[in-house]
Amino acid sequence: MTTRADAGARLLRxxxxxxxxxxxxxxxxxxxxxxxxxxADELIADLELAACCGLPPYSPDQLMEIIVDDQEVIADxxxxxxxxxxxxxxxxxxxxxxxxxxxxxxxxxxxxxxGRAVAKLEAVLGGRGLLRVDLRxxxxxxxxxxxxxxxxxxxxxxxxxxxxxxxxxIVDPVSVRLIEGHWYLDGYCHxxxxxxxxxxxxxxxxxxxxxxxxxxxxxxxxxxxEEAAPSSEAFVPGPEATVAHLAVDGDAVWITEALLNSxxxxxxxxxxxxxxxxxxxxxxxxxxxxxxPHAEVLDPPELAETGRQAARxxxxxxxxxxxx
Amino acid sequence: xxxxxxxxxxxxxxxxxxxxxxxxxxxxxxxxDNRPKSLREIASEVPGYPAQEGEARRQAFERDxxxxxxxxIEVTAVPIDGPEQVGYVIRPExxxxxxxxxxxxxxxxxxLAVAGVHLxxxxxxxxxxxxxxPASAGARPVAELxxxxxxxxxHGALRARATVSFxxxxxxxxxxxxxxxxxxxxxxxxxxDLDRAAxxxxxxxxxxxxxxxxxxxxxxxxDGFDPDAALPDVPWRIGEGALVTVAVHVDAALAGLxxxxxxxxxxxxxxxxxxxxxxxxxxxxxxxxxxxxxxGDHAEVIGPxxxxxxxxxxxxxxxxxx
Lengths: 324, 322
What we know:
The complex is a heterodimer of chains A (324) and B (322).
Chain A: H1 7-24, E1 26-28, H2 29-36, H3 40-50, E2 65-68, E3 72-76, H4 89-104, H5 113-125, E4 131-133, H6 141-150, E5 152-160, E6 165-179, E7 182-189, E8 194-199, E9 203-212, E10 242-248, H7 254-258, E11 262-266, E12 272-278, H8 281-291, E13 295-299, H9 301-319
Antiparallel strand pairs in A: 1-3, 2-3, 5-6, 5-9, 6-7, 7-8, 10-12, 10-13, 11-12
Chain B: H1 19-32, H2 39-45, H3 55-70, E1 76-79, E2 86-89, H4 92-95, H5 104-116, E3 117-118, H6 123-131, E4 143-144, H7 150-159, E5 164-168, E6 171-183, E7 186-193, E8 198-203, E9 207-213, H8 227-230, E10 244-250, H9 252-262, E11 267-270, E12 276-282, H10 285-294, E13 299-303, H11 305-319
Parallel strand pairs in B: 3-4
Antiparallel strand pairs in B: 1-2, 5-6, 5-9, 6-7, 7-8, 10-12, 10-13, 11-12
C-alpha cells in the first residue's frame, strides 16, 4: 500500500484532498484527480482508506462520511477539516517567490489580482517587503514577448557567444522564459531550419517581419512541463556536443549552480568533479578563463587545450599595449 | 467498481492497520478534542499502535510524531495530571492557516503564478493544495528560479525576525536578516552582520551546510536599514574590497550590448571605430574578471595598472608555460 509514496507525503496529500472535499461536499473523480495531480486509482484507494478513519469508537457515525463510486465522491466531513492547514516553510517560500517573480516580469500590474493576493498573503503570514525578485529587462524584451504571445515572426540581429558572431536571423517564436537570471527566446530559426535558444540580452535589433509565426511542432518544440530541447544557448544536445569532465576547487564550485545540464560529484582529492556538455569551443574557452587556475579539464585532452588557447589569444591582446 | 459506502474499521487493534490510516486517525484524535491526551489514551483511541504498553509503542508514536512534524504538523507535549504526566495535542493555531479571504480572481492569479514559476520542487503546488486552490496543469513556465535548501529557512527567519547563522567563506556568520532577493540570477540574503556591525550581502548558494534560525524576535535591524540600497545592481559592486575605478575598453562588436547592460552613465568615451571606454566602480575584482572574460577578446582592462596586471597574471596561469 505504501510503496508509491511514503506515508507522510500521502497523509499531507490526503489532508489536502479532504480539506477541499469538506468545503465542496462533492466532486467528480476526474475533477479531483486533475486538481491534485493524482491518478484516479491512487485517489480512490486513499479516499477509501480515509473512509475508515475517524474518531473512536469508529462506529459508522464517527467515521468520515465519504462515498466513492467510479464517477463521483460525496463527502460530509464537518467543519474541522474544511479549514486549510498552515503552510510549511518551503511552501510559504515557494508561494511568495513565485508570486514575486511573476510581479517582477516587465509589464505586470502591481495593483492587479496577483498583487492583491500577495498583499493578503503577506498581511496574514508576515513577510511584507522581505522577499524581492529583480528580473532584468533587456532592451528588446517587450517586442520579443509581444511577438511570442501574438504568434508573429521576428527578424533579429543576434550576437552568438558560441560562434562569436553577429548575424541576422528569422525566428518563429515559441516561448520566452527567464532561466537562471537571463531571458531566453526559444524559437524556430529559419537560418538553420531548427529550434534554437537565443539570449534576449544579446539581441541588438528586433523587428516583426509582418509574417505570422508558423508552427513547427514536429517534436522539436518543448511540450508543457518538459525541458526545452535546446537547454541553453551553449548546450544544444546533438551529435556535435562533447562531454567534458572538469575538476574544480572551492573557488570555482559556483559553476555547478550556474550551469544548466551539469552534474557534479565529490572527488577523492577534495575537489569537485563536474560533467558538462560542450557544443561550442568559443563558449567553453571563455568559461575556462572565468574559472582560471581553479579548474582543470580532466577529459577530453583537446578541450584542455581550448582554455590555454583562449588565454594565449587574450594575452596577445594585452601584450600589444593598452588601448587609450 | 460499485458504490462503496463507509466501511466499518475492525474493532480490534490490528497490526495490519495501514500507517496512513494510523496517521490520519492520529491527526483527527489530537486535533478534534482540543485537549492533551496521554500516550495510553492515544493508543486506545487510534488503531494500529502495539497493544502492549512499552518501548515498541513509544517508538511507533515518536516515529509518527516525527513524520507529522516533517510535514509541518506540530504535536505539542504538555504536562497533564495522571500517571503518565505528559499529554499531546495539536494546537489549532499551529495547524490551521489563518483565513486569507482571497477573491476568486486573486486565487486564479496565485495559481497562474505558481504554475508559471519553476522552483525545482513541488512546494508551490503543495501550497496551493493547502489553500484549496486548483493546480493548473499544462501552463507553460515563464521563469525558472534556482531552489536552494537554505531558502525556506532564511525566509522563515525573516518572517519570524530571527537572527540566522551559517558558514560562509570558512567563517561562521551571524546576521539579522532584512531581505531575501533574487538578482542577476542568484539568491542573496541582505542583512546586518552582527560581528562586523555593518550591512552585508551574502550569496545563498555559497553558504556552506545548513543555515539555522535563532529565536523568533531575536533579530533587531538598525534604524533606517534599507535593504534595497544594500545590494548594488552590478556584480562587481557586491563585495567588501576597496573601491577602485577600472577602465575597460570594449570593441565595436559588443559595445552596444554592453552599454545596454551597464548603462550610459559608465560611458567614458566613444571612439570613431565604434569601440567604447567604460569606467566601472569596482569592489569585487573577481566578479569583474568573470564578467569580463564572458566577453572574450572583445573587452580589455586598460587600468589601473595593478588591475590590468592582475588580469594578465590570471591569464598566464591559465595559458601555462609558453
